[in-house]
Amino acid sequence: MSGYGDSPPAETVATVQGRVAFLDHVLQELGMRRPVLVSPSMSGRFTLPFLLARGDRLAGFVPIAPVSTKDYTAEQYQRVQTPTLILYGDRDASLGPQALQNLRHLPGHHVVVMPDAGHACYLDKPEDFHRALLGFLRQLK
């Protein structure tokens, strides 16, 4: 992600609209039609505004304790019609529950709390993570 790790910051993603446009461009360049966005942690800065603005272009959304959930209102979340699987580890004592508190306003969501897993639950419990993810993907149209 631009501005994180060794990548330089980019003006184009400095705003919410810029991040939506950037992710939209990436998906178009990859030729992806109705993808499922899997969104761990910091990626929430890109995926949440995209979900709210263009969620109709997604087949599904899988937030994994993403950041920025508190930046949006219950009413904004309630307008989203994208099937959603909310995932987090039970040892993620801050970001996981905070994300759930905000994302619970998404209609038609399912929640999976992974036992004995931390913030990066997909690394702590990869088999459980993949089982939950694949189960969600199978039920999508």
Detail the topology: elements first, then pairings.
Blueprint: H1 16-29, E1 36-40, H2 44-54, E2 60-64, H3 74-78, E3 84-89, H4 95-103, E4 109-114, H5 121-124, H6 126-139
Parallel strand pairs: 1-2, 2-3, 3-4
Helix pairs in contact: 1-2
InterPro entries: AB_hydrolase_1 (IPR000073), AB_hydrolase_fold (IPR029058)
Protein name: ABHEA protein
Subcellular location: Cytoplasm
Second-tier CATH architecture: 3-Layer(aba) Sandwich
Q: State Rg.
A: 15 Å
Reading off the top of the CATH hierarchy, the class is best stated as: Alpha Beta
SSE order, one letter for each helix or strand: HEHEHEHEHH
Round the mean pLDDT to the nearest integer and report it.
93
Could you give the order of strands across the largest sheet? 1-2-3-4
Counting helices, strands and paired strands, the structural category is: alpha/beta
Number of strands: 4
Please count the helical segments: 6
What is the CATH superfamily label?
A: Alpha/Beta hydrolase fold, catalytic domain
Helix content: 40-55%
Write structural notes for this entry.
By secondary structure, this protein is of the alpha/beta class. It has a single domain (34-139), classed as Alpha/Beta hydrolase fold, catalytic domain (Rossmann fold). It is built from six helices and four strands, in the order αβαβαβαβαα. Strands 1-2-3-4 form a four-stranded parallel beta sheet, sandwiched between helices. Helix 4 (95-103) links the parallel strand 3 (84-89) and strand 4 (109-114). 32% of the residues are buried. The model has no long low-confidence stretch (mean pLDDT 93). Keywords: Cytoplasm. It comes from Baryphthengus martii.
